[in-house]
């Protein structure tokens, strides 16, 4: 069963969204990110994490990652299995 968590500090519901906590992310996990150039439109790019770039344990706008494709952005959604 996937691990569920609060998607933000103010959310009263558990969900699979997120990407704000570093402990929920690891290389090989499939995620959706928003690239810097797509921040205004909110267009998501999906891919597999190669590297975690944010060193802090929490970031309100999402942990910054590099995908296998080389694209860099902030995680907005976890698509892969959380186990």
Detailed description of the structure:
The protein is mainly beta and 83 residues long. It has one domain. It is 0% helix and 35% strand. A 4-stranded antiparallel β-barrel has the order 3-4-5-6. The chain is globular, with a radius of gyration of 12 Å. The N terminus is likely disordered.
Low-confidence stretches: 1-6
Please provide the ordered H/E string of secondary-structure elements. Answer: EEEEEE
Shape: globular
Distance between the termini: 7 Å
Keywords for this structure?
83 residues; mainly beta; four-stranded antiparallel beta barrel; 0% helix; globular
Describe the structure concisely for a colleague.
The protein has 83 residues and is mainly β.
Present the secondary structure layout.
Blueprint: E1 5-6, E2 14-15, E3 30-35, E4 45-52, E5 64-67, E6 72-78
Antiparallel strand pairs: 1-2, 3-4, 3-6, 4-5, 5-6
